[in-house]
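Morning!

This is the sequence you dropped in the shared folder:
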Amino acid sequence: MTDSTSQNIKDLQDFFDDYPDLPPPTQSASANLQMFPKVTTRKNESTGKNGRPIITFGVELEMTIAWIYPNDTDPEPEDPRIVKGIVVENVDSSLIRVQVYKHIMNTLRKAGIRCLSDWGFEAVLGEKETYWLIKDDGSIYPPTRPYDQRDDYQFIGVEITSPPFYSCEDARAQAAVVYDILTSNYRVSCPESTGMHVHVGLGLRNGVEKAWNTRVLANLMAVLWVFEDRLDLIHPQRRRTGGYSNLEAAVLGESLKESPNWKREGLESILELKDEKDCMEIRKLLSFKGGINRVNYNIRNLADNVKRGRTIEYRQNEGTLHGKRVSAWVKVCAGLVEFALTVDQDKLEDFLRRCVDDAPEDYTVIDLLIAIGSSDVAEFYAYRFRDNDPTQTPPTPSPLDTPPRDASPPGEVYTFYILGM
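The structure's back. Tokens below.
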């Protein structure tokens, strides 16, 4: 047994010793973990020559903002968050959107966040890549659940996208900070139509996103193929199901749906693709026919003819009001890619073949997160699972809830760790 394997098993046992209220890992999970050492950083793989991580990420945050017209009365004046003054004139709907986005932009700028609105860009294309962008998204609808519906508020959908970040703790904190600033200043809602998408890439070369090689992509998709049902438990029920969401509904899954061993056969098909000359076959098998991209793990941007935005897009996470949830899910997404990049190939394949038929309770998502080197995120989700049944939809706050207790105060200046800066 290697030193890294022994340390990994010790980390697992120490983790559960520290939290006796959590269920212990199963015996099979501990045994499987011996075949699956924690990620080890290889020179010039997960970090570049300057010591910076090469894994990059970006986020798309979706929400609705409550506002009222200038002559209307604030329905909840005791709430310090602004609702009057966001829209300063009674104008048509398109100009209302401009006013709301400009107000958000100025709020973020006062907190030290570099941002622009897509209703009047102030920078050329090359400069916009280091800014947060406030954008329209036609898929965001006002709250529809009975307890969210309010006749005394107006709602407008907002999407805010980050610049590309290097994957590190400071960068993940910045993504969480933006959310916390918004929830501290505005009456924010995340209805069921909202989500939080994470894009993960392999860094830049000469200012352009690096192309993915087939080994890394096949490794990542093989892990997702085997453990998708575990990762699903992080998300509410409504984000786990749908005609075009899970990998088993992709081209590969559809071709195997009549086989009793479809999951194992699919794993072998994915692993065989690691030596292909390009990623086209992996994209074809693990995407959907007809150009549909509403999938949990969207890899359509990894075509060789795509020069910008060569990322995998994780689309499953629900819209959230909590910055810590943003940071945790980003770390999971980036950690899976880093693992696919650095893992020992033989050990990975042996491990996946051992686990492909396991039930979620035999090797839990907590076990998986610890195994890929994300013990802190495992702790975060373990506490959530303890407080909420992971098989049920967790309660979503009302749009007019008070901001999270850990929300960052407005007005602080934050520094960025952004590509190109």
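Headline: The longest strand covers residues 56-67.

More detail when I'm at my desk.
O.
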